[in-house]
Specification:
Blueprint (H helix, E strand, L loop, with lengths): L1 E6 L8 E6 L8 E11 L1 H8 L14 E9 L11 E5 L9 E5 L3 E3 L6 H21 L7 E4 L5 H12 L3 E6 L2 H9 L4 E4 L5 H8 L5 E6 L6 H6 L1 E9 L21 E3 L3 H4 L3 H17 L6 E6 L3 H9 L6 E5 L1
Parallel strand pairs: 8-9, 8-11, 9-10, 11-12, 12-13, 14-15
Antiparallel strand pairs: 1-2, 3-4, 3-6, 3-15, 4-5, 5-7
Pfam families: ADH_N, ADH_zinc_N
Organism: Thalassospira tepidiphila MCCC 1A03514
InterPro entries: ADH-like_C, ADH-like_N, ER, GroES-like_sf, NAD(P)-bd_dom_sf, QOR-like, Quin_OxRdtase/zeta-crystal_CS
Amino acid sequence: MTKAFRFYETGGSDVLKFEDVDVGSPGEGEVRLAQKAVGLNYIDIYFRSGVYPAPSMPSGLGLEGSGIIEEVGPGVTDLAVGDRVAYAAQPLGAYAEARVMPAKGLVKIPDDVSFELAAAAMLQGMTAQYLLRRTYQVKKGDTILIHAAAGGVGQIVCQWAKHLGATVIGTVGSKEKAEIAKAKGCDYPILYRDEVVSERVKEITNGQGVEVVYDSVGKDTFEDSLKCLKRLGMMVSFGQSSGAVPPVSLAQLAPGAYFLTRPSIFQYNATREELLASANELFEVLKSGIVTIDITATYPLADAAKAHDDLESRKTNGSIVFTV
């Protein structure tokens, strides 16, 4: 027997139960993974609270982790026992000491990347990859706006976009977080509690606005984010930490003929080829030092409820990892 988190109903962090589970052996196309580290992401809170529905109940939780393959099922040819691997993939269930999962969602970890870094990097890093390289291809001379610039995805976006030659504007909630964002390449941190973001963006850009807004906040920022765009700009709504965006009228896009998209990592990495390309590009920017990821907090896996409370209360910044 091994231990894993389950939740039988949606709600606060108190619905999480750390239970004995029988992992079993891998089936066709699966592997059994002894986990070493697990990443904490805001999407975990969405599933736990019911913002995103779990496929079935009771449900496991978590989409990101790393570990060592200890058993390989039939039909798996490109992975072997002893391989160091990481993932940011469905099904839910990363909050576990061991698990069986589809091999198609796993990627090998380079020797010079630790289990902790891999667990911290996969979901947030590949999110940054598709945002900057596929949803809107950031290029030299662009000006972008990233909300929650001191958060896990935000810090990666700031560094990567700066490397691509963009001017980076970012929103943060405190002076401390402004310094964090600035150290990661954010040219203009905006304290959203003290300033109207769209007005400050127009001031920074001489009234032009930005090519793209990356918004993971949702309800509280959506309308003002549209006001930050230049003509033909793109609004990328990829999260909703403040709540779901209300229904949008197409007329809201008319003032600048704006583009609007709601992407997800699961669609951008739907095929094995897409996953490997995304992960490989992420590992390259990590190994080259273009992107550094600060693991600002680690918790024992058993303390997942406390970690959720700290994340929801905005006590954290950067990346958070559970150790197994």
